[in-house]
Input
Amino acid sequence: MKAPTIRVSLAFGTITDNTLTTFARNVHTLLYTTGFTNIPVTAPVLLAAIEAFATAKAAQSSGGKAATAEKNNRRDTLVVMLKELALYVQVASANDLAQLLATGFEAVSLNRTQYPLSKPAILRVVAGMSGEALVTLSTETIARGCEIRVAEIGADGAPGEFRPAVFSTSSRNIAIAALTPGKLFAYQGRTVGGSTTYSDWSDQIVQRAA
Output
């Protein structure tokens, strides 16, 4: 029996402006490191569209109707680019969920019989090499992989913006690199699979980088 085609989710077209900016930056960070070739939108072009949208969004609050129209135009341009990239990724990933998720895009759930994944827990965070943490996440048998994200703790004691999530097909010793030794970081994880494609993010674990 032929496996069903894994499709890229286009739900990013309806998310909030700020979430769209974060999502697009995640795609920009991850997609161009996958080794895929002939990507239809280059990294500089996508980055320029992201920054133009973010700038227009920031100017919206004090710019009136004209600024709102400009923000909407910039959003439409960015979404069109992301949809073009999403269709490319759907083909280039060749029905491989791990490859698809490694680009920063998300998948449409195909499973109508499995149950939703429960909220996982980070079991441990241990030091790897200098500036590296190895994270182990609880998982379930139907999970296809895990994602870990990290944010530096600010002076106010709260985490800043989370970095793009790291995907792994293993739940053990997921390597998180480029950490500043001595700084505090918050870690969260989620599992991939089940009837909803993603679990909720775990509770945060805060630990100082070695």
